[in-house]
């Protein structure tokens, strides 16, 4: 296909604009994935710590009575 020079320039400009938007979107998506991975890593660490605390509590003595866990105002 042969396009007149001004139409070819317009098409090229439109493609450059679309490419720029696509690059911006890709960068935003990459940052979103990066932040989500940080949150996942943090949550995994918290779960691991909670498991350790639970195991340590179980090893410290006999099974706890839930009444022992009630706040003093009950």
From TrEMBL:
This is Protein SlyX. It comes from Variovorax paradoxus. The gene is slyX. Residues 65-74 have a biased composition (Basic and acidic residues). Residues 54-74 are annotated as: Disordered. It comes from the Bacteria. It holds the Pfam family SlyX.
């Amino acid at each position: 296909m042969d396009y007149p020079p001004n139409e070819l320039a317009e098409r090229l400009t439109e493609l450059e604009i679309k490419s720029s938007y696509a690059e911006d979107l890709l960068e935003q998506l990459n940052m979103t994935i990066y932040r989500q991975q940080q949150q996942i890593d943090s949550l995994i660490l918290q779960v691991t710590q909670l498991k350790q605390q639970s195991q340590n509590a179980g090893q410290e003595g006999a099974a706890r009575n839930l009444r022992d866990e009630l706040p003093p105002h009950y």
